[in-house]
Specification:
The protein has 166 residues and is mainly alpha-helical. It has five helices and no strands. The N and C termini lie far apart (35 Å).
Length: 166
């Protein structure tokens, strides 16, 4: 659940989109630096996270359009937690690839304390975003619903194959 602070549709969709970008960035890194086994693992993990995230986006889009709850808020938050776990796994794989590349090139070890601190706060923030989208679905007028639906669609994770190694 969230921290009780109400947020609007725009902030909630922005959070979902940011999480999508993190997942895609980590995947691109693994595709670039990972060996075939790492890339295969990333593909499976990405597919799991994408499925959960897309389910959240789809449920929220339906709730927005129909003004009816397709699923319980708890169910959406559980799906979001699974998507976040997949993204965290992808981030760990990417971190491992970056550290290995840095070691090969003689660079200093990277400090991941800040990344870990941010990651610890992601799930509550994303759950607050989903809760806000869920609880405010009745407030939007037709134009706002259309705009939000477009933003939700943009929050969908890209297909694994479409992500280029960077």
């Amino acid at each position: 659940m969230g921290d009780g602070t109400a947020i609007g549709w725009q902030e909630a969709t922005a959070r979902l989109t940011a999480e999508k970008e993190r997942a895609e960035a980590a995947t691109r890194i693994v595709k670039r630096f990972g060996d075939p086994a790492d890339r295969a693992s990333a593909e499976i993990t990405y597919a799991e996270g994408k499925a959960e995230s897309d389910a959240v986006v789809a449920a929220l889009a339906v709730a927005l359009a129909q003004r009816e709850p397709p699923e319980s808020l708890e169910s959406l938050q559980q799906r979001l937690a699974r998507a976040l776990a997949a993204r965290e796994t992808l981030t760990a794989l990417a971190r491992d690839q970056i550290e290995a590349a840095a070691a090969r090139e003689g660079a200093k070890d990277l400090d991941w304390a800040a990344v870990t601190a941010v990651a610890a706060n992601l799930l509550p923030a994303l759950q607050a975003a989903v809760a806000a989208l869920w609880n405010r679905r009745e407030e939007a007028d037709a134009l706002a619903r259309k705009t939000t639906a477009t933003q939700l669609d943009a929050a969908r994770w890209a297909d694994f194959a479409s992500l280029e190694a960077t």
